[in-house]
Amino acid sequence: MRVSREQVLENKRTILKAASQLFRERGFESVTVTDVMKAAGLTHGGFYGYFKSKDDLIAQALVEALGLPETPPGDLAVLANQYLSAAHRDNFAEGCPMAALASETVRQPGGARAEMTAGLKAQIEFLSRVAPGANKARKRRAAIGSWAAMVGALILARMSDDSELSDEILSETRAWLAAQDQRRQV
């Protein structure tokens, strides 16, 4: 029985969403094609009708995961408060793909690295629109520094098995970023 083009596109979106969540939760190497297809509610045999390889799936799942909202937050402090929250820290599957997968992406073939790099560039441009600064270069510097601090803090908070330290990393990074914003606006 043939599947309509609409159903093929819907199946692919379902596969990419499942893969994106599984990869963020368990990493690239710990997730098999069978795991992804099962999570998508499809059979393993249909995988190659949608993707050339697992590497192709990884690259396309990163595109799915790295999507940005249409409008940036009001300012970086709003984003930092959402990003550096216990809820975000604890939700690997739906959380930030940069924090979950950056260290693994370094070991992936070119497609995954290219997509992660494109996502990073887009994130910096996105944040530059609301970052404090007197000119474009200073806004970009603030965006890069703030994003690096947020991603790094989330990684460290997730890594720690000490819940008090984990919470402290999140709250102190939020406070540090807020102080940086105040300093830049003076």
Total beta-strand segments:
0
Our count of domains comes out at 2
The shape is globular
How is the quaternary structure best described?
single chain
CA radius of gyration is: 18 Å
CATH architecture of the largest domain: Orthogonal Bundle
Per CATH, the superfamily of the largest domain is Tetracycline Repressor, domain 2
CATH fold topology of the largest domain: Tetracycline Repressor, domain 2
CATH C-level label of the largest domain: Mainly Alpha
Major sheet summary line: none
Coarse structural class: mainly alpha
Mean pLDDT figure: 92
Helix content: 55-70%
Please write the string of helix (H) and strand (E) elements: HHHHHHHHH
Head-to-tail CA distance between termini? 67 Å
Query: Count of DSSP helices?
Result: 9
Summed up:
The protein is mainly alpha-helical and 186 residues long. It is 69% helix and 0% strand.
Task: Give structural attributes.
186 residues, mainly alpha, Arc Repressor Mutant, subunit A, Tetracycline Repressor, domain 2, 2 domains, 9 helices, 69% helix, globular
Would you kindly provide a written description of the structure presented here, covering whatever features stand out?
The protein is mainly alpha-helical and 186 residues long. The protein has two domains: 5-65, Homeodomain-like (Arc Repressor Mutant, subunit A); 76-185, Tetracycline Repressor, domain 2, CATH 1.10.357. It has nine helices and no strands. It has helices at residues 5-26, 33-39, 54-65, 76-83, 86-90, 97-105, 110-128, 136-159, 163-185. α1 packs across α3. The protein starts with a helix and ends with a helix.
